[in-house]
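Section 5: illustrative case.
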């Protein structure tokens, strides 16, 4: 025998004919505290879970507002709540209305549900209801549910949503927090908000993104460095998730984020916030969101000049301030033109925030990609030290003499050391070493003249010590001793290393005296170690020599 449940707001005739019924009547206070989706999810669905029925009768309007169509909204919630209602979500639903389905469909996009299987529209009178109830009604099958319900409906985002970017961020925060088991008040509030929302229920069922009992398990590896998040949605939960990500993946990495990035700021405000944070925190790796300002949305939607998007403008700013910082774009965008624009700049890559349209495995794939890129970025930490040395050298008074062409050439060559180290050329170690060696040769040319017979000081034409030895090493040792007033013994090992390594790179045969000192091109895996142990050490030596010159 059919068990019929009627849901009404005292706007159905002969309610007493329905022994199983309840009144849908949210108070003003209840709606002030939450929206209609939250009220249905927290108040009505739990009631339906407890009640016994195999047919539902719902009035299309359930308030004094005759175009609110809360009854249709409730019907959608029921159909999309299979996890909590189980088989009850598939029961036949009769919508009681004073107008026909075509008028309803013109008044609201929610009217689409009236054209799906096992949804029946009845005139709001006992005779019409009884005629429908005389029919043999069966629950929806799973096949009918997928093909004759899901494929025929569409739920629009709530009107208070500004754009797809906001939707993706809320969705991605929830997905990432779930996989990492992140529990925090901000995360819980976000999850509560979207789990109650009809729009997200639709997306979750539509794209089959049910939460699995599966979390990410990782082993922390020792990395050193600072990771900075720059995202207007940081306070919405991203900073909590990325911090947890860093804690679980890397044993010695500091994390921070820029607070108070608000949509109504100007790009100059973003620059100011960033410059303050970069001085305070000194990041090695930055996760940079594409859209930081409200104006970015119209640029993307109207396909205007993408170089004006705040994330790309900040990317250019970072390149000017400190190109050694490793940038990972962290974006909700899948626009090919925008992604192509990223790679015109010196970025490690990009990680896409999960979108509702992405498949379940997208989160895990994005985690793995982010992990790989952060590790690469932290391995390139030596670049920041190289950049710092370069900036210190270029500020030295010795290099300010623009009248001396050789000093000008030395200045320009110093810049190539970082550029070479930060490029994708093959054999980066060798070419960086050769760039430093070239600077040493240029220093020699600034102070010493070699006429192939002997070597003299340019300033007073006197012979240099051991002038018969026209090697680069002998010349620079003289400069260290007589022009920089330094002890050559402090530089002996470092100079021998770079000279022997240069000779190995240029000549096929190595002198026996170089055994054990030559530094050959390392494997790609050893490049960070070799740059830290040798290139930076040789570069510091160059700085110390030039700093001591008058």
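Designed sequence:
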């Amino acid at each position: 025998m059919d068990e019929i449940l009627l849901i009404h707001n005292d706007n159905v005739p002969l309610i007493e004919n329905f022994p199983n019924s309840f009144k849908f009547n949210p108070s003003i206070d209840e709606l002030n505290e939450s929206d209609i989706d939250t009220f249905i999810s927290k108040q009505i669905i739990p009631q339906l879970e407890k009640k016994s029925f195999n047919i539902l009768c719902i009035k299309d309007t359930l308030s004094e507002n005759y175009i609110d169509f809360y009854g249709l909204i409730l019907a959608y919630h029921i159909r999309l709540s299979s996890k909590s209602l189980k088989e009850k979500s598939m029961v036949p639903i009769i919508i009681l209305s004073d107008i026909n389905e075509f008028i309803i469909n013109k008044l609201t996009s929610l009217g689409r549900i009236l054209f799906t299987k096992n949804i029946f529209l009845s005139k709001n009178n006992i005779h019409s209801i009884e005629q429908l109830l005389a029919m043999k009604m069966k629950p929806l099958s799973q096949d009918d549910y997928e093909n004759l319900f899901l494929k025929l409906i569409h739920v629009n985002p709530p009107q208070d949503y500004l754009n797809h970017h906001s939707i993706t961020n809320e969705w991605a925060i929830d997905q990432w927090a779930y996989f990492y088991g992140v529990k925090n008040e901000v995360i819980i509030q976000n999850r509560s908000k979207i789990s109650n929302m009809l729009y997200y229920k639709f997306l979750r069922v539509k794209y089959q993104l049910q939460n699995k009992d599966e979390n990410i398990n990782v082993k922390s590896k020792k990395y050193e460095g600072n990771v900075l998040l720059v995202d207007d949605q940081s306070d919405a939960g991203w900073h909590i998730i990325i911090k947890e990500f860093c804690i679980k993946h890397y044993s010695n990495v500091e994390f921070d984020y820029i607070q108070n990035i608000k949509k109504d700021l100007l790009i100059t405000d973003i620059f100011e916030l960033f410059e303050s944070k970069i001085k305070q925190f000194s990041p090695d790796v930055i996760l940079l969101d594409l859209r930081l300002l409200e104006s970015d949305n119209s640029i993307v939607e109207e396909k205007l000049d993408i170089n004006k998007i705040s994330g790309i403008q900040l990317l250019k700013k970072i390149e000017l301030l400190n190109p050694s910082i490793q940038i990972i774009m962290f974006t909700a965008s899948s626009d090919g033109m925008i992604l192509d624009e990223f790679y015109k700049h010196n970025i490690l890559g990009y990680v896409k925030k999960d979108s509702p349209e992405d498949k379940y495995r997208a989160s895990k794939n994005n985690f793995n990609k982010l992990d790989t890129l952060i590790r690469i970025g932290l391995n390139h930490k030596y670049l920041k030290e190289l950049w710092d040395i370069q900036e210190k050298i270029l500020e030295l008074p010795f290099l300010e003499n623009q009248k001396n062409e050789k000093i000008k050439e030395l200045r320009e060559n110093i810049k190539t050391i970082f550029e070479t180290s930060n490029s994708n050329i093959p054999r980066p170690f060798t070419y960086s070493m050769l760039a430093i060696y070239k600077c040493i040769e240029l220093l020699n040319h600034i102070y010493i003249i070699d006429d192939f017979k002997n070597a003299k000081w340019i300033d007073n034409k006197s012979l240099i010590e051991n002038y018969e030895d026209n090697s680069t090493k002998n010349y620079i040792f003289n400069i260290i001793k007589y022009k920089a007033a330094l002890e050559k013994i402090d530089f002996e090992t470092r100079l021998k290393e770079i000279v022997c390594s240069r000779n190995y790179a240029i000549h096929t045969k190595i002198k026996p005296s170089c055994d054990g000192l030559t530094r050959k091109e390392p494997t790609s895996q050893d490049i960070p170690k070799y740059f830290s142990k040798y290139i930076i050490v040789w570069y510091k030596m160059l700085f110390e020599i030039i700093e001591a010159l008058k």
